[in-house]
């Protein structure tokens, strides 16, 4: 009995793997067909979206609606203001969320989704740009649209050919393609991305040195003619384990660390000029650099602090613990 159960488990596991591989092959083939079939209609869609001064309204029913929600979120997070509007709710007042400054992307594999009718009619009435993502070029939705993005004629991964699987995967990929094309068209940068993604791991990866550096009175700085006795006091009070040395113009010209103190230990150390002890041309980093870059720089050189310099003048200092406290890794 036990052997039979083990055999059954093995067979089910094998069957599950085969099903999974078949699904992935079919959906990958659908995306590949989509890529090969893209035409100037895609460029027209990007041009239409690029002229929008309001928002991109994405809508769909059922599984297409779930994909539409994700497409709207991806557009919004990559610099193209967008919202999802449920087609059924649109017929009961939510059409008021759509203005003449917007554009609509409507998703329907069949192109005959009844719930989209009022939204499509509204878009046509007020001359609102309408992009259809559908599997049928001769459908009602396609006929009404200004731009039609036709999905490839690819079989659903469902063995009965009924459950939306390949079609929704291809819709999702097409939405990503539109979002990235818009991102590149707008010149959306990493800085812009960080503004829209301040939280979570992604936000921490995009955190800049300027956001976590110490500045102003916190900087451990001395002029190059000051005595080492003063350097020792500044290093102790500021607690960074180093002191930056600046020349007459205020530019950073050297650095003294705990290691330098040990290497120059002698009876006359405290009476010597800091310029005689400092390490010239210290390693620095830009305020606009990513905090992750600063962390990697410090780890790679076994140092714990970096002066932040703009136009050769120190504007801040960052300690490795600042990166770790901010969650940068």
Keywords:
329 residues; Rossmann fold; CBS-domain; five-stranded parallel β-sheet; 15 helices; 17% strand
Q: Could you please describe the fold and organization of this structure?
A:
The chain is of the alpha/beta class. The protein is 47% helix and 17% strand. It folds into two domains: 2-188, 3-Layer(aba) Sandwich (Rossmann fold); 209-325, Roll (CBS-domain). It has helices at residues 2-37, 40-50, 63-77, 87-90, 117-125, 140-144, 166-186, 190-196, 200-205, 209-212, 228-238, 258-263, 274-277, 291-301, 320-325, and strands at residues 56-60, 82-84, 103-108, 129-134, 147-150, 221-223, 242-246, 252-257, 279-280, 284-285, 305-310, 313-319. A five-stranded parallel sheet has the order 2-1-3-4-5, sandwiched between helices. A four-stranded mixed sheet has the order 6-7-8-9. Strand 1 (56-60), helix 3 and strand 2 form a beta-alpha-beta unit. The radius of gyration is 30 Å and the shape is elongated. Mean pLDDT is 90; it is low at 4-10.
Instruction: Please give the alpha-carbon distance between the first and last residues.
Output: 52 Å
Structural class: alpha/beta
In round numbers, the mean pLDDT is 90
Biggest pleated-sheet summary: 5 strands, parallel
CATH superfamily of the largest domain: Glucose-6-phosphate isomerase like protein, domain 1
* Estimated helix fraction: 40-55%
- Secondary-structure arrangement, i.e. CATH architecture of the largest domain: 3-Layer(aba) Sandwich
Q: In percent, how much strand structure appears in the residues? A: 15-25%
How many β-strand stretches?
Answer: 12
Q: Tell me the series of helices and strands, N- to C-terminal.
A: HHEHEHEHEHEHHHHEHEEHHEEHEEH
As for the number of domains, it is 2
- Main β-sheet, spatial strand arrangement: 2-1-3-4-5
* Rg computed from alpha carbons, rounded to a whole number of angstroms: 30 Å
What are the segments in which pLDDT stays under 50 over at least 5 consecutive residues? 4-10
CATH class wording of the largest domain: Alpha Beta
